[in-house]
Amino acid sequence: MQTLEEYMKIHKKNREKSMDFASYLYRLMDARGIQRNADVYEKAGITKQAWSNIVSGKCQPSMATAIKLALALHLNTHECKYLLKKAGYTLSSASDFALIIRYCIENGIYDFVEVDTLLSENGYADFF
Fold it and tell me: Shortest CA distance to 83 belongs to which of 63, 108, 57, 103?
């Protein structure tokens, strides 16, 4: 028989799978103790209006915006994967661009300038 803690852990993960992009984004913010939306959208370099459209469900973020949010929140690989999936994207091993982003996330490289430099050096100029 499972313990209550094990049971709750499994079912909380299932709840994560059913969340929409905005709900999952807010859960990630809450887990990091971030209370102000501005702390995230300003760090990610997106406008207040774009943030509002995304969290209200009026539009899905672009892949670039979703990645910027992942970097701004210092997400781990699992969290980044789920956030991007909820926006309709994936970081496929078939894409050099995706591999660079995955490398950055897996190695704790969250600085936009450093990520952009790695992208530029590999033919993906001016991503950020």
Answer: 63
**Single-letter code of the amino acid located at 47:** T
Question: Per-domain residue ranges for the chain?
Answer: 4-121
Instruction: Please state the pTM of the whole predicted model.
Output: 0.84
Dihedral of the alpha carbons of 58, 60, 65, 66, in degrees to the nearest 10:
130
48-55 helix and 21-31 helix, angle to the nearest 10 degrees: 110
Two structure tokens written together for 31: 């887990």
pLDDT of residue 9: 77
- pLDDT, block means (10 residues), the chain with 128 residues: 83 70 95 96 96 94 96 96 94 93 97 95 84
Distance between CA atoms of 112 and 36, rounded to whole angstroms?
A: 21
CA separation for the pair 74, 80 (Å, rounded) = 9
Measured between alpha carbons, how far is residue 28 from residues 3, 38, 45, 117, 122 in Å?
26, 15, 18, 27, 30
How far is residue 56's CA from residue 50's CA, in Å, rounded to a whole number? Answer: 10
pLDDT of 15 reads 62
